[in-house]
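Morning!

This is the sequence you dropped in the shared folder:
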Amino acid sequence: MTDPALDAEVLRERAVASLLTARDRTALLTGCVDEPDLTAQHSPLMSPLVWDLAHIGNQEEQWLLRAVAGQEAIRPEIDSLYDAFEHPRTERPKLPLLSPDEARRYTADVRGRALDVLENASFHGTRLTEAGFVFGMIAQHEQQHDETMLITHQLRRGPRALTAPDPEPVPPFTGPSEVLVPGGPFTMGTSTEPWALDNERPAHRREVPPFFIDTTPVTNAAYLAFVEDGGYDDPRWWTAEGWAHVRRASLTAPLFWRREGRQWLRRRFGATEVVPPDEPVLHVCWYEADAYARWAGRRLPTEAEWEKAARYDPADDRSRRYPWGDAEPGPEHANLGQRHLRPAPAGSYPAGASPLGVRQLIGDVWEWTASDFLPYPGFRAFPYREYSEVFFGSEYKVLRGGSFAVDPVACRGTFRNWDYPIRRQIFSGFRTARSADA
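The structure's back. Tokens below.
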């Protein structure tokens, strides 16, 4: 029998490590630029970096200090300033936000108290604290905002502020271009992953007909063939809404790409480089992914198809936590955690492949799916409606798998992301699929 005290200590160590890892990353993202860059709005799509910083602290205070520990509010007057639903991003620069120094002091104060709460926390008794869920939720929340801040760094103009080593080079991928995923039921979602968020729950059986899916994400070279073939000028490949958006926004290539003579260049975190042909394509919206798939005679996978390709093991008819198994992600499995500032070449990380041989399902680029963001059968909002429930519907498309900017704590085989189909500033790419009888 497992010692409950030992289980609690393991959970405590995991929670502490996750919170500290997130805070180190937050400090990097907010400490590498000067105050004007922290308070500026670099894009109307994004908040000033200093808003994200204080919002991280405010969420941590509300859930770990007030909800769990029952403590009095430290600065109740700022709650509304950092309520993401009360103030759209375009309004946030005009608010009386905490200065960078004030925001740092506030988040440090909250974190010190939160670690004290964690030191004495019980991991039983309430759904919020069971298995350390609320601490995991806050670590994931901070990492999600860290990814948002990294997007802001990509949109920011000016000299490079962040550096990281490139992924290891790999030989050109020569394996099969697609993999057959057998038809039949599989278990989608989870009821056992302790830190899974509400939209990942509950586990349920889903019937999926047989289909083929790309072995790797679509590369820049493959996408460039679509561009050079006039894909952005041909309405045949676009939905009516997509074609209207292409015309309205004057899209001609992925975001941050530009053509100079016979070369395609891209801007990446303050530097300009030749578009690398073997990397997964990045910064494309859902409409672009869908149009490419149509041009290629294929389609985007549904969310259920994507998850079956990522988790289903036909050898024992079960769903794994990750494509490679149940072990936590390691550097041999996937490109995660801002370890690099770009996707790895297509075909990288063979140790992270699924049982059927599909690669790079976790990390590198978020992958657009064909599916709207909808609740699973039996969904229950927890611990607040605004995390998932208010976004359900046909306005949002689901992305899966995470990107190089996602920390492992906020990425697993069941994790669901969503965004508007026009969004391109996110670290989004895709892979295509086709029905087995097509």
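Headline: The longest helix spans residues 4-31.

More detail when I'm at my desk.
O.
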